[in-house]
Fold these 3 entries.
Entry 1:
Amino acid sequence: MSTLTISGGFAGQTAVDHAPKEVPAGGCTMTPSAEAAKETKMEKSASLPVTEPGIAWSELLNGAARLVLPPLLGMLLLVGVWYVATLGGGPIPGPLAVWDAAAVLFADPFYNNGPNDLGIGWNVLASLERVGIGFGLAALVGIPLGFMLGRFAFLSSMINPLISLLRPVSPLAWLPIGLLVFQKADPAATWTIFICSIWPMIMNTAQGVQRVPQDYLNVARVLDLSEWKVVTRILFPAVLPYMLTGIRLSIGTAWLVIVAAEMLTGGVGIGFWVWDEWNNLKVEHIIIAIFIIGIVGLLLEQALILLAKKLTKESS
Amino acid sequence: MEKFVQIENVGQTFDTKKGKFVALRDIDLTLKQGEFVALIGHSGCGKSTLLNLIAGLTKPTSGVLLCDGREIAGPGPERAVVFQNHSLLPWLTCFENIYLAVERVFSQKEGKPKLKARTQAAIELVALGHAAHKYPHEISGGMKQRVGIARALSMEPKVLLMDEPFGALDALTRARLQDELMKICEKTQATVVMVTHDVDEAVLLSDRIVMMTNGPAATIGEILEVNLPRPRARLELAHDSAYIDCRAAVLEFLYEKQAHVEKQAA
């Protein structure tokens, strides 16, 4: 996950680097001798059309190969090691057995044989729903709270010790409290997601607010803007990148935690499904679940990176 | 109005880790309405500190500042500031940046179409009508500074405060903006305080040049009246004896009377 993030960042940077370089080249039209310039231009135009597309194509292919080949090799290596390690039999099934099981499983992901036997699709959706609700509530509470902590120093020094105390607590330690308060498994799992997603959002938002450039705040002070305008026109756009980082961190943790929480609470969900298949000793399904959890987590993170890119492009 | 801005016995002390630092002391200055005053001095002499005091961004440790008969208690749109680094909000277009200021000042009395017309007028005052819907990162440094000036002027401030507004620009752009600023000031009869370290800029634009002594504990050293007729044309002034005298007086103050700053630093 992290390598993808980094390469995305680099790609963005090079795009920015190129832009200014091209501007002076286009703007510099004051060549000392026009004839000389024409001559060189003609030479270039004679040779360029022949070679350029060829170069571009091979470069494009090269680039694509460099982008796709290493991850592909990594995957092959993983499957290869897995294959060799399970050749001699043992409790862990090999890749081929898992593939066969997956083919059966994904042939009908949305079957419904009563509440204790639902298709894999339903389980993933149930987990996503819990994450969505818990995470959404955390955003609703955490982001405004982060804004207030960043804006009011007194509040910040009042609340920060509490955050430092509660943040390192494993979210699962909150699960019994949730069970006790809500008397039901489902809201307790959602509560766990809420409590683990809220810290990164509070902290990143507060940090973003504190790092808003003094220039922008001076503009706000000179214009004597109302607090509402300060928040909507200056703080919110300035803090947005930090907020999105907080959201991205949160959703990563939330997806990590939901699997564990569902193992404990039972019901429907990918975490419960893993535990259920362990009780049924269907190890192929456990391995499939690991892949599903990984892929869904990756997709969630990539979606948020995309969203962040889109929003920050619009606002900067 | 003879005493439009009054600065009386103002001092500014900052608390630093090494103890108290006296930035300004005994500042007494009165500005007339419609007057253009330049603050000049070596870096670190407290020019910007004084400007921030007039803006209300900081409060004086001693003394009092008045604007139009009222004590300056904090920043406000009647004392608009053009910042050194333009300080446009990057997520708003040029139009929206100015509109934010116009809306703040006039939205209680005027409707949206009127506010938009004001914004458009301000942007055309600095000849940027064509760039109204561009974002700050899409325009050049000089254009950004012009938007900053338009934003300040759009509020119809009593006093326009400019903190080295052209300091970061190349010489040609700077000259063009100075000419534009002179025209705008003539049109709007604005009262202007401008911090600068450019002697030619100070003489060309100002009615009076306030020369500051070196810090720490800087104060007003001399005040030079620039009695050149307006409108002023930079080319003609280059050979004007009064202009040359003024320029020489400022240079003399900076490099003879206050020259020891380099020695101190070295």
Entry 2:
Amino acid sequence: MAEITLIEGVTMALARAMEEDASVIILGEDVGVNGGVFRATAGLQARFGDERVLDTPLAEVMIAGMSVGLAAQGMKPVAEAQFCGFTMPMVDQIMCHAGRMRNRTRGRLSCPMVLRFPSGGGIHAPEHHSESPEALFAHMPGIRVVIPSSPSRAYGLLLAAIRDPDPVVFMEPKRIYRWQREEVEDDGEELPLDVCFTLRDGSDLTLVTWGAMIKETLEAADALEKEGVSTEVIDVATVSPLDMETIIESVSRTGRCVIVQEAPRHCGLASEIAAGLADAGIWSLLAPVKRVCGYDTVMPLYRNELKYMPSVRRILDAASQVLEVS
Amino acid sequence: MARTVAAFKVDYFQFLDPDGKLIDEHKAPPLAKDFSRLTELYRRMVLTRVFDKKAVALQRTGKLGTYASCLGHEAAHVAIGSAMQPQDCFAPMYREYGVQFCRGVKMTDVLLYWGGDERGSDYAGAPHDFAWSVPIATQCLHAAGAALAYKLRGEKRVAVSVVGDGGSSKGDFLEAINAGSAWKLPLVLVIVNNQWAISVPRSKQNSAATLAQKGIAGGLPSIQVDGNDLIASLWAMEKAIAAAREGHGSFVIELMTYRISDHTTADDARRYRPNDEVEDAWRKEPIARLRSYLTDQGAWDEEREQALLEECARKVQKAADDYLDTVTNDPQPVTAMFDYMFAELPHDLVEQRACAERFPEDGGHH
């Protein structure tokens, strides 16, 4: 069994899905010969041919709109947007068509497409390459939004997303594309969508996060454990629909919760989770729920980007505030 | 020193003049003498117009929501619809009923949709066609995607989409042209140029001499056709669709017509356009033109006209009755908004669906 990185998990899942289903095709800018700017599709065109791995003209609306058309007519397109910032022109097609196709035709047509793209900051990229727009897509009815945070979850969740009969936005945390290596068997086994993954059990505090912030959150959990704080860590993974049940169950045992989110705070997913706790978890809470988020500013250019994103120290600061309350 | 590296022209096709006379007997296609087909298409055009008038009347009497009329587009629409084969795919904007009736969409479907009932987009008669697309020009890319699917699977099917003169200004349309050109897709993009994008005239979209030339800029054979001339419109559509089916790539056809109606029933075109322009459009409209031609050729007469109008009125009344019966006696339950969101309802929607079921009468209905 090979030790692979998160992005290699993506590539392995793409190859597996193409192998098992002839209707799966990949389209995007530079995905063919070049194998994608992060190499997520490396080698796939050579292996599956240029009719299944298509380099598109430089037109994001085309990629999204044609994926809708392909999906409605029996194909399973896996479209790549090169960077998160370039998904904005696609929003019209995703929100107004992909998410509505099944409903408005009463199931006559459906839209089993995946839009995958690298998301988030921290790699010293230029402007518009570093945003975390998960809340934007999570607000769209009819769209699943999935964010893996490890090589095995990248493989298993992407396979599930491609096999899913409805549209999935699959956001890849590019900062941790090559952070960890993990043994992942290419066995075609998918992981479940719509559920959180509990990465570490604990009894004093629940840390909830997703995507690349898993790195800082696990580091914070390590530091807390050293201080004797038993810390549970939850990777939300599917951010829409949201598995509040797992989070509420955890908080029912710990009574304390900090949510860590790279995206701006206002109307973000952390707020939705906090609202869910206020609704169905409030009688378990021993302390206020804290959100540690990116600021409600434009993502700064790279010299300041790490100061924008939640740090281990900011997470620990929030944790100490909720642990202080007795 | 400069040299010409590319040169272009846009041809305009018209066989039947506004008075219904063949412009040149010898240059007209054989279709011009196929009276059994022409009378059949004429009947479809008339049915479309009678339906349209009824739909507007239903809206005016509070029995239908906002409705987008197709008055004046009948030749263009029937030409597109009857040039297509059943296995082809249509991606409409929102007023191409004449195309859709040819495809098997029912008049009750159209009324249900504009009557606020999703079942109107569940076309039993055209199961793989796309539903109406309200965000302008977005449907052009769905057709391009469909065309790519057919091409990849080696199916001899053509995708056809319609956009307006306003929609031709949108990126989606231009990106669909690029897609058709890049992959040589079996795709026909039709600009139904009716001169008005709500209140904005064609002249304000851009200063290009034609809209068809946008296709040429993207590398597609593109022509302009008198869209009120059924013979020219059908001839052009059939030629383009046949060529696309045989692997010759994509085409752009600009059908010149006129939106005689308001944009929708929520619009009042008298606010922004001169009446003499509309009167002039009535003189060029497609149905009288074809009737005049067929009558001159001895293929039509007043008796048949009256019988047709009565038949159309009967069919349309039946569709209206069926529509009203459905929304009155078989309304969509409150849960209908949930049941097709996903193949399998996620847990959060299960909970919200249960909530909606607890308050089934809240909000009432119109």
Entry 3:
Amino acid sequence: MDASIEAFEQHKLIRHENLLWLIVAQGVAIVPLLFHLPPWMWLVWLGAMVWRLRIYNGKLAFPATLTKFMLGAACVGGLMVSYRGQVGVEPMIGFLVCAFILKLLELRTHKDGLLLLFIGFIAVGAQFLFTQTFFMAFYAWTSCVALVTAWQTIYLTRRLGVVHKLKSGFFMLLHALPLMVVMFVIMPRLGPLWHVPLPQGTGQTGFSDSLSPGDLGQLVKSQGTAFRVNFNAGRAPSPNEMYWRGLVLDEFDGRTWRLSAQWDMTLKNDPRFVPKLTGANDLIDYTVQLEPHQYPWLFALAEPIKVTSIKATRQNIHITQQGLLTAHRPVASRIQYTVLSASADDLSGSALSAAEQAQLLRLPAGTNPQAQALGQSWREQYQAPQAIIATALTWYNQDFHYTLEPPVLGKHSVDEFLLTTKRGFCEHFASSFAVLMRAAGIPARVVVGYQGGTYNALEDYWRISQSDAHAWVEVWLANRWQRVDPTSAVAPQRIEQGIGSALGEQDRALVGAGHYQAPQWLGAWRERMDAAGYVWNRWVLNYDTGKQSELFARWFGGTEPWRIGAVFIGLIAGMLGGYTLWVIRPHRSRKTPLQKAIEQFDKTCLKLGYVRYREESLALFAHRLAEQKKEYETACHDIARISEHVLYRQDHTDEAALMTALKQFPKPVHRP
Amino acid sequence: MDAPINPDAIASLKASAPLKPSRWQQYFFQWIDKRSPPAVAVLLGRKNLYTFPTVMGFGFLGLSLLLWVLGTNYQNNLILALSYLLISLFVVSILHTYANLAGLNIRVAGAKPAFAGESVHFVLEVSGTRAKGNDNIVARWWSGEPMTFDFEPPAAIATGTAQQAQSITVSLMASRRGYLRPGKLLLESTYPLGLIRCWTWLNLDACAVVYPKPLKADFPALSLDDKQGQHGEPTAGGDDFSGLKEYRAGDPIKHIAWKHYAREQGLYSKEYASAQQADTWLQWQSFLHLPPEARLSALCYWALEFDRLGVPYGLRLPGKQLPPGLDDGHRLSVLSALARFDTRLAG
């Protein structure tokens, strides 16, 4: 009894050729994750693979339960040490990958194989926690093909070639694709069911919440995309008006600008802060697709009056009293939001309070004495703020140089810059200008964000890259904040045409690692790829309830549940019908030319009034026909003779001869 | 005198109580019987194929759900898409598994007779029209051992008559002599992904003859000096038995002292002064000391033994007599007669 059970279970064991497939499929699924995990995991993987292959060669035995337990414990311990006991996405994925790898060592039966493949699918899903690009999705598809192929080989008992197996796995997934698309489009989207930790691995990008000389100079050298903007009504402001405000810094310590603690990120819940529209002619409606930068601040044109986040389920976005956008959590995954901005002219504000006034004029005593003295002298000399601003800008224009590699500044950075070096980047101009204004009694603050952008005509959007990072100043004039960009006084091309044209040859090479010297075809290719990525983000990654209803309204004329249900059922039913015809079709198979010739022959005979019975061979029938129809005797005997040759000699030339004989019937054929 | 027959050997002749399908399965089989009466050939299709997820299939749905929850919690559309892809794969695999069995034609080709206690090999002809062929199909009789087969896609068919068929052998243990009707044939497959089981129970009109299990028993009335011996019927006056000598190759087989041989005392030849050719008869009455089934088994044993030794033998059963003979055809008729014999006729 036991022996018979063992004999039966024998064919449920993993065979050698499946094992190789399983190892390959596992490798394909695991590699992208290993880049996000501690490097020693590579060794664990290689070790497990070598061990399993040695088991396969009969050199080693399967590990004992205790050994497996020790290995598992070692991996868990290693992960704890590597992540210092943190609980998060990476350690969880680390555990998953460990289980996945160690499962290899107990891979014996079909069931183990299936379990391994199931973990493989989770691993493919886990990759998307880190990267969601189109290429990653394509890679995941490839991984799925490998997994499904390995899966099929478990149950395949015939010997087939590698290409044949891969093709069959690929087609199986391809058959599943249309149904997946329907489900993806139609299935309702729910909000998160419970709070989940987010991956921590990606570093913060963009600027931080403080600005010291040299910060932005470093940032503009990176080539990454900060965000992409699509102007919804097609009304884009001119590029020199595109000041994407990110943060307002109003506290200066003599060298670094920071957020003052008291204003911080106060939300604009207070109706006092809601800007009043005086003329609604100039509203700009745009959608921003922000790359994750791990900070809570977002970017908008002045002055945002309404924001709706498209991925509202993950982030609540507010407008602060400084006219900034802020998310309630650091932006860890790509988000998309739509903003309505009014130009500052259309807004009316109220006077600053005494405390605000004091904060916005504060300069630390004893720092930058010469700059402070200069500002005070201007105040006494000119009185009118506009005149003071004009004086400062004229001075910048005449005496200063715009460069990405300014001289290093010491403790009194503003004094040194203004009076000695006179060479700087936008943060030098913004910082010194704000100090001068404050010294001259004009409330001023530094704004950091991005300026400009590159238009992509393929998909009608603007790409704002890190090299567009910028700092400028806002001054309080006539009861409202007005933008002053001292950089535009020094290097107007920076604002008009972007940073590439504003920098000298040497500096230019530093920006974006030669991005600007790239050959034209490469630039066009980059633009095309960026556009593809934008569409991918917009339609696949950011497909949500809002887009869903938009799509339903456009395609099916409404979003009522019954309508969606009917569409869903209709599509599924249609698809299953199609599948049934396509996949199943049990009675159809490709006919060989010989079979076709035989069918044609049968039809000819039927016209003559003779039926070949189902069990009757060609030769028998031909002899019978020859007896009854003397005029076809020769042809019939030919067919009988050649068909016997085909049967017993197995020569391809015979088959060809039989085909001609059948086709030419009732004319006799004489073989050469 | 006679070597006692091992009572266990006789007990083993009694068929163990046949396995009974569970109540649920009985209802299912009744339902199947209504839908498809027994037939020699069956085409698999919509009417007789059933599908249901396997345990692994439910596990896979659980996995898809897990990915869906992951995708929903992380608001990650690609993970959601993956979970939908897996669910679609599950749906598609239903069709693939069904298509793997659909269109197969199963036909009973016959069965080789066997002795009780051995496996009867039923030969089935399988043919199909699917260009891809049919993979990893398990066939088993209701109470039999499973076997796995693939159906290779048909090659070029030169004769143009029927589809090329492939023979498979599905065995079933024959527990007792007589006709063996194997009952329902299970054909199942979980190919390609093991998520869905597609199966059918076929009412095939198959039947095999099962010979009695040979039972080694003494050939009773043969004693060297017994004139009513059943073994030889010596002619009057020609029975001057002169003694035993050790058997040597070339001695007439009919002269072997079976009784001694049966007692395992060695192989001896009887020496007669004038031995006559005599017929050997296997008789029902010879084994009256055994229960009826054991009687048939003993007759079977001796029929085989005589056949092996080249002694022509006849068979006398109540209501049936086969004249002595010695060839394959004769052996088959004797064995069939034993297999078919109705013990109630003997009273």
